[in-house]
Structures are given as structure tokens and as C-alpha cells.
What does this fold into?
Amino acid sequence: MVFIENVIAGFLIFISFFIAGLEMNGWDFGNWYSWRIMVFAFIGVNLANLVAYLMGADRDAITSGLFGFCPNLIAIGSCTFTASADAAGNWWSAWIMLVVGCILCVPLQMFINRFTNHFGLPGFTFPFIVMVWFFTAISFQTDLLAVGNDPVLRTGMNTFLENGLTGNGGSWMTGFDWNSMGWDWGSMTSSHWGLFAINAFEEIYVADGFIASLIVIAAYFWYKWDFALKALLATGFAIGMGLLFGADMGQMGLALYGYSSILTVGALDTFCKSRINSGRYWFLFFLGLVMTSLINFGAQTILGAFGFPSCTIAFVLAGWFILIVERVMIEQAEKKALNKNA
It folds into this structure.
């Protein structure tokens, strides 16, 4: 389940998908859409594992879930990104994205991992990103996701085609405005702050839900308490960066700036070789969070002009950047040690 290899933690996260579906649909147990996220996640992961098995993938990699985490995101994303299609009556769009996306994701993941391995880097969630962009691009010429019915995507694409890429943001230290979200300091409640600080944990899995996010946090603590604390620190850091830079409060309120930072922490926890060197590790930790936040701000501007969601691209780019920086730092330290002993 994205950097977490633990049966109980994985089960808790799977349960959180069901809770998220209920939260997103008004706790209506009789509504198919309340169950769809969990059902799609189950189908998508097992379908991808079957494809990986038939393609002769390493059995240990399959058992470890390495071929399941990107299809899991695609499966849940097929519920999220087909909202316009659902509204237009195209109920089949989600099923097409689920089945086709999870099948194609496996060979795509093999290809991407083979390419990134040449540079000593993992593929992270890049296969998921490519598949979402692929379906989004198709949808501008077809009615698959009904993006032509989505005013945000349609306006973004038309603006780019007519005027080119232009920025409408303020200065670097533009003050944030709580009223843009309909709030002011006097009316802020715990639920509002919960959206800022907590919901990012379920947004990792392309879903939304406060209680579901609390379950994910519990899963992280079951997995490793220090990892959970660092993930919470990452969300706080992302919120601080958003407030400092005057980020869009709509994006902040939906916790869209926090989930990539949590994933960056997961990448460091899994792939970083400097954990025994606390000074170097914490330098890379905060450098990674800064890079993730800054890329998040810029990626949404560039990709949004084309109607593409940024997904987890900030995490992927920041993760690659940090691992390369770490490699350079280790090489420099080894050279100094050799020169000292010479």
C-alpha cells in the first residue's frame, strides 16, 4: 500500500476506502457509489497482480505488492476522475478506466522501472500518472471521461489555446484570504482544520474523507510510529508552505498540497541510505518537503493549462531529485574519507 508492507496496516487502509466512499456519499449504505471505491480497489489490485503473474513477473515482487499500488490508485482514480461522466450518464466510463488502466499499468510499470533503474531510481507512482494523463488526453477527443462537460477542464484548455500559458497569481508573499473559502478566523472550526491537516492521508489514495484519513494514520502508526510522526510533520510543513506563499485556499482546504509530501517521506523512509547519518537524513528530509511543495505550486499551473491533473508528479520529481542529491553527497563523503586515509 504505497511504501507500507504490512498486512494489518494494509487491511486498515483498505477499510478506509470503504469509509471514504461513505463519507463522500453522505453515509448512504444503500448507494452503490458508497461501495464503489472499495470494490474497484479490490478488483483493480487483483487484476493487476494476475496480469503481472501471467507476464512472468517476479513472484516476490507480486507478493510484496509492488505491482498493486499503482493499479490501486488507478482503480480509485477511475471513481474520482469519472465524476463528469457519471453525471452525464456514462456509467461505463469508470469500468473501462478500471479494467483497461489496471491491465496496461503492469507492462507500463515494467517499462518505466526498467528505464529508471538505469539511473538507479525507482519508478514510484509515475505509471499511475501516465495512465491518468493517457485517459485524460483520450477524453478530449472522445466522451470517455466526459471532460467536455467539466467547466474547469474546458475553461483551462480553451484559455491555453486562446491566450497561451499565463499566470494570474499574485506576488511571492501574496496574503492568503480565508474569506475565499467562505471562512474567517472567527468561524474556523476543528472540521476545517481537519481538512487541512488530516484529509491529505486519504488523498494519497485519490479519495477524500476525514474519518478515513484517521484510519490511514492509525495504519501508519501500526506500521511504524516514527514513520507516522514524520508523515504528520510533512503535512504540517506543507500547510505552512501553503500559508507562507499564499496558496489557493480552495486547494488547501481539499488537502491537495499535503499528500505528495507524505509520499516523499515514504520514499525517503524506503529508499534513503542516509538514515544512519541523522544530519544528512534530516537535511534531505526538509529539502524534499521544500521541493515537493514548490513543485506542487508550479505543476498545477502548467498541467492545468492542458487540462491534466497533477496527481503525484510533485512527489515523483522531488523523490528523484532527493535520491540523486543523496547519491552525490555520499560519493563526496566517500572521496573525502579516501583522501583522508591516503
About this structure: Residues 150-190 have pLDDT under 50 and may be disordered. Residues 108 and 120 are 18 Å apart (CA to CA). The chain has 16 helices and no strands. The longest helix spans residues 313-341.
